[in-house]
Structures are given as C-alpha cells and as structure tokens.
C-alpha cells in the first residue's frame, strides 16, 4: 500500500473504576489515567507519542469509566494536538482484545492499514514510528514491543521467546510459574485489521464448544466459574499465545526505559522518567532557577505556570508542582508530586512523597518516604485535603482524605 493511502488509528486502553484499587487513595478523586505524571495526565504521554506516528488519523480511548469523566480532557487534548481523540465507553469489561473488537466499526471507519494499540498504565518512550517501520518490514499480522528485564522480575509480566534472526514470536506465556525468558511484553502493539478476524475466531470457538458440550448438571456447576463469556477475549492468553510460532506475530525490542504504573509509588518513579525525557522532547516544560529572582532548581522539575514558588525555596530533582500550589520560603522538595491547590509552608521538607489536592503542610514539618517505589509504604501519600500541622513528621504513611495530623506518624495507613 502506498504512503498516500496509508492510514493509522491508535487505540489506548484506559481500564475502568473496578480496576486501580492499588492506586488508592489517589484514584478516589480522579480516574487513574488522568492522574498527573510530570505535570501531564498519565494518558497524555501515550497520546503525545501517538501524535508522532506518520499518517495518524484518529486516537480512541477505550474504557468503562463514565464518559463525563473524560469529556473535558478529550476535548482539550484534541484541540491541543490537532488530532481527533474520542472516548469509547464499554458497557462492561470485554478483555483487552474483546474491547478492541467491540468497537471495530468505529476503529475501521477510516479504513486504517494499521492499528496501534497500547495500555495506558505503561511508562516508556513509546518508539511508535520505529515500531511501525519494523511491523511493515516483518509483514505479519502484529508486532509487539518487548523489553529485557531481570530474570527475578520477569514472571510478573508476559514472557516471550522470539527468533533472534527474524524476530518472529515463537512462544508466549502470561506470568508463568517457571522462568521462560527475560524478554517481556511491554503492552504496546501494532496490528493489521486481520486482528479482528483472530478475535472473532476465539469467540466463535467458544460458542462452538458451549454448544457441543454435553455435561451433567454437577459438571456444569463445576465449570461455570471457569468458562469465560464468548465476548470476553484476552489479548495475551487468547490471541498471542495461540498465534506464537505461526509466522503471524513479531517482536521489536526497546532498549529505552519501560515501567508499569500499578501503584502510587511507581507513578512517582515514572514521573521522574518522563521528566528526564522532557530534556529531549519538551525542554520548555522544565523549570530553571538559581535562587536569585526564582527558586533554586536542581535536576528535572516541572512547575505549573499558576503555581507560586518562593525564590528562597529549593526544588528538585524529580519534582512536579501542579496548578495553584503555593511553596513557601526555605521549603525543600525532592522526588515528589505536589498536586493542585497544595500549600507547603516555610521551611517544610517533602521527599519521596505525593501530596494530594488542597492539602497543607505546616512550617518546619517533614513529609517523607523511604524511596522504595515498589513497597506498599515505600513512599508517603497524602490524600485530598490532608493537613499536616507545624513541626510534625510524617514518614512512610498513606493518609486518606480530610485528615489532620498533629503528632508524628510513621509506617501507618491512616484511615
């Protein structure tokens, strides 16, 4: 197909409110995909990456959040990027492949030659133009972005084996109990429209099995909980595993950063990764200052234009300050996310923490975490409208909204 005829549609899976419980208390206020990383909503980073794809005509967000929760964002990002972005709400979860198939008529409206599909909760540099070029060279139905991880952590993901010469996917196992490979599925794909036939094939096979099955009432009860609905199709177990080794799927390895954003701790880690990437992609978003007319800035820092930061504050590295925040004199911020309307008063310290909307941190107080992004209490998280009074230390805690802390707390979940 010539480049003049080429059209690409992008699909970003954003999930829904029944997921993301590990992201509480932050997801109590805002859908997880709209939580800010490096000052931009989580979903903004893959959307911006899609903008770099040649011949992109449309971006769809698929999930089962209420449409009103994405209405304003979808409108503003469409205007900003000059690419149509549309939110499609599932009536129920259909699985990663089933959700794609459920909206096939919308996705195929523009008659795309290729469909880019990615998960919202992954953090990487999204090398989508390179992935697309590799996909065209391979000539298969789909290409998977893969990354190398430690052998110890590989079983948390989909492990795969590819031909070292042709990059054909030979074997795929989702979170296997025994080690298969240190190459994992990054949750970023490019497919031809043939993917819809493959998904339909899984549904048809399930229907046929259900029709042919003749079992006793006891056996039926035993198997009822194990049988998936015919329209619930998982991309990994139902599509990738069966098609491995059949010259239909290929891999493209990224040597750049990749992380999965499942918890608030990992969101802080990923905010740092995106801030460091801004040096090359959006340097104008990074703050600077030497402590004379503006605050001292160390490393990669994002400050919203409406935030007020005292010139005697010292900020960074890895700090993101959101709209209408107020940062007082002598404040020290390191590796933290400060959300909208937060006030950090004079000489307070915030390190390895996320400070929720409308919260207040008193003078000479310390809000800190240990910096272990994977541990449950590895960072400190303050929910919305939490008040930390003057000279109070909060260390390695999760604090739910609307609490006032006037004594030292450590290693606690404060309900």
TrEMBL record:
<dbReference type="InterPro" id="IPR005835">
    <property type="entry name" value="NTP_transferase_dom"/>
</dbReference>
<dbReference type="InterPro" id="IPR050486">
    <property type="entry name" value="Mannose-1P_guanyltransferase"/>
</dbReference>
<dbReference type="GO" id="GO:0005737">
    <property type="term" value="C:cytoplasm"/>
</dbReference>
<feature type="domain" description="Nucleotidyl transferase">
    <location>
        <begin position="10"/>
        <end position="208"/>
    </location>
</feature>
<dbReference type="GO" id="GO:0016779">
    <property type="term" value="F:nucleotidyltransferase activity"/>
</dbReference>
<dbReference type="Pfam" id="PF00483">
    <property type="entry name" value="NTP_transferase"/>
</dbReference>
<feature type="domain" description="Mannose-1-phosphate guanyltransferase C-terminal">
    <location>
        <begin position="297"/>
        <end position="414"/>
    </location>
</feature>
<dbReference type="InterPro" id="IPR056729">
    <property type="entry name" value="GMPPB_C"/>
</dbReference>
<dbReference type="Pfam" id="PF25087">
    <property type="entry name" value="GMPPB_C"/>
</dbReference>
<dbReference type="InterPro" id="IPR029044">
    <property type="entry name" value="Nucleotide-diphossugar_trans"/>
</dbReference>
<protein>
    <submittedName>
        <fullName>Uncharacterized protein</fullName>
    </submittedName>
</protein>
<comment type="similarity">
    <text>Belongs to the transferase hexapeptide repeat family.</text>
</comment>
């Amino acid at each position: 197909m010539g480049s003049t005829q080429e059209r690409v549609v992008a699909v970003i899976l954003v999930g829904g409110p029944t997921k993301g419980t590990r992201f509480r208390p932050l997801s109590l206020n805002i859908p997880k995909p709209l939580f800010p990383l490096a000052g931009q909503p989580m979903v903004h980073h893959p959307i911006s990456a899609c903008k770099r794809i040649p011949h992109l005509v449309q971006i769809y967000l698929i999930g089962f959040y209420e449409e009103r929760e994405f209405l304003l964002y979808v409108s503003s990002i469409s205007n900003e990027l000059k690419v149509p972005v549309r939110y499609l709400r599932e009536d129920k979860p259909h699985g990663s492949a089933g959700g794609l198939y459920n909206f096939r008529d919308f996705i195929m409206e523009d008659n795309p030659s290729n469909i880019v599909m990615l998960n919202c909760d992954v953090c990487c540099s999204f090398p989508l133009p390179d992935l697309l070029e590799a996909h065209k060279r391979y000539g298969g139905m789909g290409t998977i972005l893969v990354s190398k991880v430690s052998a110890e952590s590989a079983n948390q993901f989909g492990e795969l084996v590819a031909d070292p010469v042709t990059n054909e996917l030979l074997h795929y196992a989702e979170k296997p109990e025994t080690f298969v490979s240190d190459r994992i599925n990054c949750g970023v794909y490019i497919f031809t429209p043939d993917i819809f036939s493959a998904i339909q094939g899984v549904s048809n096979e399930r229907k046929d099995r259900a029709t042919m099955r003749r079992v006793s009432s006891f056996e039926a009860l035993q198997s009822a909980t194990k049988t998936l609905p015919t329209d619930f199709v998982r991309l990994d177990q139902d599509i990738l595993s069966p098609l491995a080794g059949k010259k239909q799927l290929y891999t493209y390895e990224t040597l750049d950063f990749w992380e999965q954003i499942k918890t608030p701790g990992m969101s802080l880690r990923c905010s740092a990764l995106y801030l460091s990437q801004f040096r090359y992609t959006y340097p104008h978003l990074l703050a600077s200052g030497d402590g004379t007319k503006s605050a001292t800035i160390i490393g990669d820092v994002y400050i919203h234009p409406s935030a007020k930061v005292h010139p005697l504050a010292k900020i960074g590295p890895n700090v993101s300050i959101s709209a209408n925040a107020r940062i007082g004199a002598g404040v020290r911020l390191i590796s933290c996310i400060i959300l909208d309307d937060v006030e950090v008063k004079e000489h307070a310290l915030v390190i390895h923490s996320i400070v929720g909307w409308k919260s207040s941190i008193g003078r000479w107080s310390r809000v800190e975490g240990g910096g272990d992004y994977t541990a449950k209490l590895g960072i400190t998280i303050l929910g919305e409208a939490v008040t930390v009074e003057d000279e109070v230390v909060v260390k390695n805690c999760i604090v739910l909204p609307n609490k006032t802390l006037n004594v030292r707390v450590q290693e606690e979940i404060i309900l």
